[in-house]
Structure formats: structure tokens, C-alpha cells
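User: Teach me something about this protein's shape.
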Amino acid sequence: MHGLIWFVLVGLVAGWLAGMLMKGGGYGVIGDIVVGILGAVLGGFLFGSIGIGANGFLGLIIISTAGAVILIFLLRLVKRL
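Assistant: First, the predicted structure itself:
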């Protein structure tokens, strides 16, 4: 249960930061959590495949936010089509 709370917290922070960085309107609390969690998975996969891992809470936030930014970029690209 403790891990799930941290996972949701990281997702919320990463989703919110990605929304701020991408100058978007945001997706609401639930949307930010979903974007952040999916971004964490994407960021973990992408950075892990090139040998970069997250060390500590700040590293996890950075990698998750980077993944969420990439996810938002891809979502907006698909939305234009």
C-alpha cells in the first residue's frame, strides 16, 4: 500500500510538471496522475534502455517528468492528425 501511494504521488507531481513544461492546460488531477504514471513507465523504459537509472525520489521525478513530456508531445502530435 505504501508503494502505491508513492507511485501515485510521483505520477501526480510528474504529470503536473510535464503540463507546466509543455504549456498546456493540464488534464486535471486524475489526468495528471495518469499522464505522470504512464510517463514514469515510458521514461523508465527509455532511460533504462540507454543505461540511465533513477536514484532517489528526485531522480524518479526527473525521469517520470521527462517521460510524461514525451507522452504529452506524442499525444498532441496524434491529436493533430
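Now, about its shape. Residues 54 and 60 are 5 Å apart (CA to CA). The first helix runs from residue 2 to 21. If you'd like, I can walk through any region in more detail.
User: That's plenty for now, thanks!
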